[in-house]
């Protein structure tokens, strides 16, 4: 069964990313403490965020070289 994202789940995501107000924080923290499913969701989201923060992406050297070559030869039409 697919779980539908609820308003509270959206608020938890905003909370994790520091996008909530002080009054929202109180509500979210109370919700997490009183609902084990929300607590599990919160902990899962924290773990996912930590894992995503470790991801480092960079272009291949050939891609950078292609862009540099293009920019060297580019002449704007005026």
What key phrases describe this protein's structure?
mainly alpha; 78 residues
Describe the structure.
This protein is mostly helical and 78 residues long. It has one domain. The protein is 69% helix and 0% strand. It contains four helices and no strands. It has helices spanning 7-16, 22-34, 36-53, 61-73. Helix 1 crosses helix 2 (22-34). The longest helix is centred in the middle third of the chain and has 18 residues, at 36-53. It starts with 6 loop residues before the first helix and ends in a 5-residue tail after the last helix. The mean pLDDT is 90.
Can you describe this structure in just a few lines?
This protein is an all-alpha fold. It is built from 4 helices and no strands.
Order of helices and strands: HHHH
Structural class: mainly alpha
**How would a textbook summarize the main sheet?**
none
Q: Count up the domains.
A: 1
| Number of E-type strands | 0
Note poorly predicted spans: none
Shape: elongated
From the alpha-carbon coordinates, what is the Rg to the nearest angstrom? 22 Å
Our measurement of the CA-to-CA distance between the termini, rounded to an integer number of angstroms, reads 59 Å
Question: Residue-averaged pLDDT, rounded?
Answer: 90
Percent range of helical residues: 55-70%
Tally of DSSP helical segments: 4
Q: Tell me the fraction of residues in β-strands, as a range.
A: under 5%
